[in-house]
Amino acid sequence: MSPELGYQLVYNFMSLAIAAMGASFFFFVSARGSLKEGNRMAVTLSATVVLIAFYHYVRIFDSWVATAGAGNPGAFNEGYRYVDWLLTVPLLVAELILVLRLDKKVESKLIQRNVLYAFLMIATGYIGELDVQTSVVLDSSRTIWGAISTIFFVLILRDLFGGIEASFKRQSKEIQGIFKVLRVVLIATWGVYPIAYLLPTISTSLGLTAGDGLVLKQIGYTIADILAKPGYGLLIWKIATLKNSGR
Questions:
Q1: Which of 85, 82, 66 is closest to 74 using CA atoms?
Q2: pLDDT tens digit string along 176-217?
Q3: 206 SS3 class
Q4: Is pTM beyond 0.90 here?
């Protein structure tokens, strides 16, 4: 694709992300007021997540305009995304555990362990992100650190799928149904990140230029963020609402 088209596509998707994060923040803040105190924390965390993401998307957007808009996309600051994820991904994991209102000891252990996993997943992924190779090299630092990051991702999924299974079965049928959808959303959205992460490495194998790989990576990250933050938060809010009504 032409550099101009690639620039506009990323520009528009980032604009959409800013609007989605901002609008969902006001929704979550207003919605939490109708919940009982015990059901508010997860929705409060959802509001916190999208507020953090809103701020960082403004910074990401400004960096894209200043670099790609000036014809120098290689100078784009990817670090803003990773700072955002270091803060928001642990909160996303915590809010899912909190909304189910598990046994306090189980809840505390799951949150502590998975917040650590989430932090390490993002930190190791960022080390690999610093490798800007555009050819398929299995022993490249991007590939190696991406594999290490994936280990922590699998550990999180193990806990979120297996660690809360006993509590999950005690939830109402309606909540179980929403939770199953939430699991699919979690895998589908989080699964986009490693694909987008590898695009700079595999772009030449797919017949794409390095510029195409960068554009597709930014679009992939942005779509995944919209689904994994406002979209995920809406499902958390729905579960909290059902628990609020005793279901």
A1: 66
A2: 777 777 777 777 777 777 777 777 666 666 777 878 888 988
A3: coil
A4: no
